[in-house]
Amino acid sequence: MLSKIIAILEKFTKKTDEQVENKLINILEGLEKSSIKLRERQAEIIQFLFHSRSKFKAVEAPTGIGKTLVYLIYALCTDYFYVIVSTFTKSLQEQVQKELQRFFSCPSIIIKGKRNYICLDKVDFLLSDKEKEFLKQNFIPQEILSKVCVTSNYCRKGYQEICPYKGQCEYLSLLENISKERFIIVNHFLLPVILKRFQNQEVLLILDECQQIFSNRKIKFIEEDFTLPEEPKQDSFNSIREYNLAYEKYLEKKQKYELAKTLNISSPGVYEIPSSNLIDFSIPNEVIFISGTLPERLPVEDADIFYVEDKRSWSRVKFVVKNTNYRALDYFSVLEETISYALQNYEKTLILATSYSQLNYIKKKFPEVMVANKEIKPFHAVEKLMSGEVKAIAGADVFWTGIDVPGY
């Protein structure tokens, strides 16, 4: 396969292209020494990425062919100062970071949504001693987390400089170090904010599972959202913390008001807003859209699109259709019967659950099935499945999104 890749790249004639070719050959030789060999369809994607001269490239390829490895190889061969990889879930962020480290010994930084980080200033100011005890647990109740998670409106630049906990803040530390790593791994919802930090920089943007970007966000508007809120005055508060908290709520209401005006929304209700409208595609120098199923329309013009044919033989796949639904009284007995059949007849079983009640039932009835939770990383579960340590894995759709299982 290495010789085939080299033959593909013989069309390069410029000096810069020769340097890229040498980088690619060194990377592929290193992978082959680790017994990692590119498959034919992976080589086809690499050929497309290198030969396309469009700023916008899109690849639709079936799950399981190793898209992540391919776009990381391409990114490592480029001269962009920063590579931003955006994924749909935290599990996918961790998978990308793992592959960068495992195959290329390449460091990276993961930036998760602000609500994954605790604001120590809010903890000190807003929580009682009893509530603070919950922060020592693995699972923090949502009502407490919503009180003390980091928000951009509270953690404004002006307040960051005087915050008594700025030296201990995990989120501020990540932001300070974000420009020190070449590879930055974010999620789709945080991408618009992070991307703005890299204006006038050399940036390659990779959107993994890009179809999720085009899913609409549902936002509820109430009557008060259509009135411009009054800005709080600092001298009306006893402390800078109290003022900052009030100012945070003011900014939230003001942003809602401005959003309603921008979208010409004037009556209460729940509205759907395309997430892709928030991304400024003029900032990156190059954008790669990756998906198992590309959306019908991309949010950019003149994109080069490459479709990888799904050559798997579906004739060997057996579909079992049960005449039931999750509201039926016999639903869980049918679920139990189906899983029992799979465990008895197949060496490896993947279970996609559509609710946590299903996962809890599976965990109770089938102790031999690995049931996904916050502590189980998808790629670790897949490794155990492939090694035969477990026969089956059950998880919800977020757990499985974008996870490649060899041979499936």
By secondary-structure content and strand pairing, the structural class works out as: alpha/beta
How confident is the prediction overall: mean pLDDT? 85
Mind describing the biggest β-sheet?
A: 7 strands, parallel
CATH topology of the largest domain: Rossmann fold
Cross-sheet strand order for the largest sheet: 3-4-2-5-8-1-9
Q: Helix share of residues?
A: 25-40%
Shape: globular
Summed up, what is this model?
The chain has 408 residues and is α/β, with parallel strands linked by helices. The chain is built from 16 helices and 12 strands. It is globular and about 70 Å long.
Explain what you see:
The structure is a single chain. The chain is of the alpha/beta class. It folds into 4 domains: 2-108 and 181-215 and 277-307, Rossmann fold (3-Layer(aba) Sandwich); 111-172, no CATH class; 223-267; 314-400, P-loop containing nucleotide triphosphate hydrolases (Rossmann fold). Helices cover 40% and strands 14% of the residues. The chain has helices spanning 2-8, 15-33, 40-51, 67-77, 90-104, 120-126, 129-133, 142-148, 157-160, 170-177, 191-196, 240-262, 331-345, 356-365, 378-387, 397-400; strands at 56-60, 82-87, 109-111, 183-187, 203-207, 216-221, 269-274, 286-291, 304-307, 349-352, 370-371, 392-395. The strands form 3 sheets. The chain has a 7-stranded parallel β-sheet, with helices on both faces. Strands 10-12-11 form a 3-stranded parallel β-sheet, sandwiched between helices. Helix 2 (15-33) packs across helix 4 (67-77). Keywords: ATP-binding, Hydrolase, Nucleotide-binding.
